[in-house]
Amino acid sequence: MKLPQNSAEWRAHLAAKNAEPVAYEVTRHAATERPYTGKYESHWAKGIYRCICCDTLLFDSGTKFDAGCGWPSFYQAADASAIEERVDRAHGMLRTETVCAVCKAHLGHVFPDGPAPTGLRYCMNSAALSFEPEDRKP
User: Fold this and answer.
1) pLDDT at 137 exceeding the cut of 70
2) Which one from 53, 100, 103, 123 is the annotated catalytic residue?
């Protein structure tokens, strides 16, 4: 898949995928959706979560848990190589940003306060994700 190359192409690409209105700002400019507003925060169906921008597999629903933080949270990526980590010093904090390894879309952050077995909490923006129900997985 050829990825969009500029702002206008990214906006059109996301609109064609029926992405949430904040998806462009979240994925391309590292914005954050407000807590408890994302469509996947309280979503518990079985399936897989993909990058809304490039369809890369990111998470399996079996690793999703209720962190009580207001964003969908996972304790493990479906494939560690699908997510890159970057140091984020924005807003006077030191955090670990997560981006899609393929298209560099901002996904959210990862924190070391999750459940076993990993102890990680991938705190993701719903606007950066798409969901494929288990009965539709290839």
Assistant:
1) no
2) 123
